[in-house]
Amino acid sequence: MKGGSRVRTTEALIGNYQAKNVLHLAKFLPDARPTYVYDPKRFVISFARFLVASCLKQRRYKDALALVLALIATSKYIPDSYWQIGQEIYKHILPSELPTYLRSTISGITQPRNIENIRALLVYQADHDLHSEMDDLLRDFEMSHEQYPEFCQLYALHLYDQWQRHPDEPPPAALLQWLIKAYKGNCKHRLIIMAYLKVLRHENDLNTIHQITDKCLASQAKHDPELLSFLIHENFVGTQWLAQAIQLCHADPVADPSVIFDKTMSVIHAIPFDDDKYQEMMFERARLISLRLEHGVYDETTMTEAQKLIDDLDTFPAELQYKIAQFMQQGDLPLTLTPQLTNDQSRTLKRLIKAVEKHAADKPSSDRPTKGPKRDANTPKSQPRKRKTAMADTLDDSSGQPKRAKPRALQRPKRPLKSNVWHKYIATPYLLKNQASH
Length: 438
Fold this sequence. Notes:
By secondary structure, the protein is mostly helical. The chain has helices at 10-19, 25-28, 40-57, 61-73, 79-93, 98-108, 115-127, 131-140, 142-145, 149-164, 173-185, 190-203, 206-220, 225-233, 242-251, 261-269, 278-294, 300-313, 318-330, 343-361, 390-394, 419-437.
């Protein structure tokens, strides 16, 4: 702008960019024209980005693709920002050309930022069972990306997935090498920890297994139900960590049972009867089942555990039966009989409620109130209580002197007048007096 006095209109600026064949904005939104702008190039690019988002929202993928290509031509729209938009567009316009597009974005973005593009291409190939192409892709970038932990994780999980298709065979040596690299790069990656422990068990490396499990249980497993359930289910830890599993079940009672609930139940079932914590764990078992039922969880696993609890209640000690029944009666268990339940679910809940009511009414003998110790035959009977007389009311028990009169405030109030007395001495003279005055 010459001298800063002239303000060029946006329409003229856009026409200038149209003449350079950079952005054909008039083709997409010809009627929307702001009056002026001080930074025309920035406005055009930001306005085109807005149009791309609008086209994607309206599922106008061809127009969005044309705008993205125009933005790329300006060299102001870096590939890191647009490649995911192009991936979404290719999925709906040319899904067969998506691998070619993703491969080009990997080459156009510098490392290690292109690892996300490699992951997207691997996901596409895995969805279409292109396992040989996955091997070729990872080998192509093995030398240039092996120093990045994210790439090591991708390579290790790919090799582990291939080994899981043939679990009877020994794991390849390359799998253990890539798992070691991935674990050193990120020791808190859940999938890497699971795969690493299974391979170490196959290699019978117990020392490394104990080091990894102790580290996980000390920090990460406290807040990761899936990792803790894996460690318990695969017998990498004993029952000393069962309290953490029970705490996680209480924290999320409506979670999928495969995450932590069914594994916790299997460990509780394995506790022997002569164990010191048997009754405590059986009570926790009943608490977890009752908690899920109170929250409206009626999946197959929960109802199966409820059925097992009904069958096992009669085998528990009387004190434990009463304790469990009292706890379940305090909850909202009777309110769970809703019309949405199936016949089997309703039948199981009715049996459970009936068993709870039965054991709650059968109070153990140790908790029942006693009548006191029995009187010995040689113990003399107590003397009958003497009836008080009028003289006994006025004399003191110890000295025989007359008792002091009670204060007026502590004396018994006088009895009210009977109704006939009230009419004779109060109501009737008052009425007669009023009639005489009138």
